[in-house]
Amino acid sequence: MKEVRRVVGDIIIFDLEGTYLGGDDAVDFFQNTLLPALNGGARKIILNLKRVQHTETATLNIYSKTVCGRGGQLVLLNFVSIPNYDDEEEAIASFAEKHAKPTSGD
User: Sign of the C-alpha dihedral, residues 41, 8, 62, 24?
Assistant: First the structure.
């Protein structure tokens, strides 16, 4: 996993690149990059996942709990996920919105 660290004001942005954010790469990033940033006072962190092909959601959960547990905020950028709804009717309606057949105009 490659990473580039950028700073915008009091926000740290990590541009990540690799095939898979999970396993040993995720542990290395956590121990060698994320924790030191938190220990250095970082509290606003963005993970840019645009160039990561696969992401283990359990890894993101650990990152989020760690950052939030230290009073910080973690934001994901370019994270593609499965749509999630809190309401069953919204979930059902989402199919109608996205998969509606065009009308003929007659």
Answer: negative
Rounded to the nearest 5 percent, the helix, strand and coil shares of the chain are 40, 35, 30
- Give the CATH number of the domain where residue 59 resides: 3.30.750.24
Query: Rounded mean pLDDT of the chain?
Result: 90
Does residue 105 sit within a domain?
no
Residue 55 vs residues 20, 52, 78: alpha-carbon distances, Å: 6, 7, 11
- Residue range 24-62, pLDDT digits in tens: 999 999 999 999 999 999 999 999 999 999 999 999 999
* CB within 8 Å of 28: residues ≥ 6 apart: 1
pTM: 0.79
If one counts the domains in the chain, the total is 1
